Amino acid sequence: MRIAIIGAGALGGTFAALLSRDGHDVTVTARGAGLEAIRDRGLRLTGGYGEVTAVVDARTTLARTPDLALVCTKAHDARNAIAANATHLDGIPVVVVQNGLAGVETAEELLPGSDCFGALSIIAANYTEPGLVRVTTTAATYLGRGEGDVDDATRALAEVLGRAVPVVPIANFRGAQWTKLVVNMLNALPAATGLTVQETIADPRTRRILTALMRETVRVGIARGIRFGSIQGLSDGRLRFFAALPLTLGQLLPRSMGVRMGAVPNLGSTLQSITRGQATEVDFLNGAVVGEAARAGVEAPVNAALTALVHEVETSGRFHSIDAVVAAVDALVRRQQ
Length: 337
What we know:
Elements: E1 2-6, H1 10-21, E2 25-29, H2 32-41, E3 43-47, E4 52-54, E5 57-59, E6 68-71, H3 78-84, H4 86-89, E7 94-97, H5 103-110, E8 116-121, E9 124-129, E10 132-137, E11 141-144, H6 152-162, E12 167-169, H7 173-183, H8 188-193, H9 197-202, H10 204-223, H11 236-244, H12 247-250, H13 252-261, H14 269-275, H15 286-296, H16 301-316, H17 322-334
Helix pairs in contact: 3-5, 7-10, 10-11, 10-15, 10-17, 15-16, 16-17
């Protein structure tokens, strides 16, 4: 197939390299140094899926209409990236591989002639330098749409993509987006402190804050009437049980996530954006929790505080110490006890 990858960053680069290795004709969109590196040296992938150097067509925008497209930009870049390529995207199947809650709806709005799907990838990948991606943790990618059962189109698409990278078609995709949002709470503390995900889980001070972020997110989802989808060993029942636990016991959940990550340092996607001098998608992660809380008539103060701390790092270029983060949010965390 002719497959376009919109946004050849960590995840986009991973999918592009693996789909190219599987024999597909892959075009990627990229910018700046990344675009030049891919044109000069190919798209290079190392780590969990092996060593791949994929020769792909690299452009700033698409020049032809593919058979299938994957939108792999950061959430805040998605609207502009889809609009810039809409001439060649509208009318073909489009998969939005993205964090946050609104990606599929954005694609449907801008591409009324397309069959739009969502994908939630648990792969941990680091964009280590322009054109080079290192996969630190291999995992499944979950494909679906809406709140209903898996349909035939989703199954067929999962079969095509699954020959290159593990893909699982799932029901209740909307609920699964919320479950992934809970998982994505792992991103804010590394972005605020400059530490790896594993380091923020290992330190009892930041692990306590992380647990509060996750528990607050689940409670907001419950207030919004969400039935959480089942991914990565998390389910509606398990998350509701977690939300009811005391903060001390709830720390078992992030601990278990840290064990699954292994020892290879995971920076998290938000910290990777900061280290590259780019805007982060914190408003679509922790900020999304704050917005959904307001719609439900409740509050999400811990998520609001971490959103503000990450924005301070974006503006100043200086990371916060753990002590400073604790001082900023400890009183808010104690209110959850």
